[in-house]
């Protein structure tokens, strides 16, 4: 597959600032469409004091696919993981306001122009998922590797047992 990123004539570089802004006295964690899958972007926002998240996206390139719903599922997971409300705003996909427990508070359907004023709970503090995030990810990977290794050894032992001399005493 060719590298099309090089064809974009812009001098984009990764930012150095934490992924949040302050609006009045509210710290808002930010992520754009594909950032929602990167743990560090979301966890850094929570660690820096984000009280609510706003994820903005443009799903126009993915009309007619399930990509929009995948992003919403990630947004719901991030709300639960961080214990914060998430406002997922899409220019052409589904927009939703998600409570910290993953429940949908408000929303607009695909390709629906809408405006809303919705109250969301503001949260502080860190959930175990954010505190242990990297460690937990490593433990899950280590557990999976250990489990597969044990299963592989067990399988190998079961299928490569030496044949016993059956029938030797029967003769």
Molecular structure report:
The chain has 171 residues and is α/β, with parallel strands linked by helices. It has 4 helices and 6 strands, in the order ββαβαβββαα. It has a 6-stranded mixed sheet, covered by helices on one side. It is extended. The mean pLDDT is 86.
Question: How do you describe this structure in short?
Answer:
The chain has helices at residues 39-47, 67-82, 128-131, 133-159, and strands spanning 20-23, 26-32, 52-57, 86-90, 95-98, 104-108. With 171 residues, the protein is of the alpha/beta class.
Helicity level, as a percent range?
Answer: 25-40%
Write down the Rg.
Answer: 24 Å
Order of helices and strands: EEHEHEEEHH
Mean pLDDT: 86
**Topology, number of strands:** 6
Outline the secondary-structure elements:
Layout: E1 20-23, E2 26-32, H1 39-47, E3 52-57, H2 67-82, E4 86-90, E5 95-98, E6 104-108, H3 128-131, H4 133-159
Parallel strand pairs: 2-3, 3-4
Antiparallel strand pairs: 1-2, 4-5, 5-6
Structure characteristics:
alpha/beta, 6-stranded mixed sheet, single chain, 171 residues
């Amino acid at each position: 597959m060719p590298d099309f990123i090089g064809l974009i004539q812009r001098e984009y570089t990764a930012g150095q600032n934490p992924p949040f802004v302050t609006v009045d006295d509210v710290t808002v964690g930010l992520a754009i469409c594909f950032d929602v899958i990167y743990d560090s972007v979301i966890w850094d926002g929570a660690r820096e004091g984000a009280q609510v998240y706003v994820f903005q996206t443009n799903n126009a390139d993915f009309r007619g696919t399930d990509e929009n719903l995948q992003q919403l599922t990630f947004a719901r997971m991030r709300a639960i993981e961080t214990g914060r409300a998430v406002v997922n705003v899409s220019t052409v996909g589904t927009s939703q306001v998600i409570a910290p427990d993953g429940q949908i508070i408000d929303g607009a359907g695909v390709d629906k122009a809408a405006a809303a004023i919705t109250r969301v709970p503001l949260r502080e503090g860190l959930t175990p998922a954010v505190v242990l995030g990297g460690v937990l990810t490593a433990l899950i990977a280590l557990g999976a590797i250990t489990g597969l290794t044990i299963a592989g050894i067990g399988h190998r032992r079961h299928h490569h047992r030496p044949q016993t001399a059956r029938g030797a005493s029967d003769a």
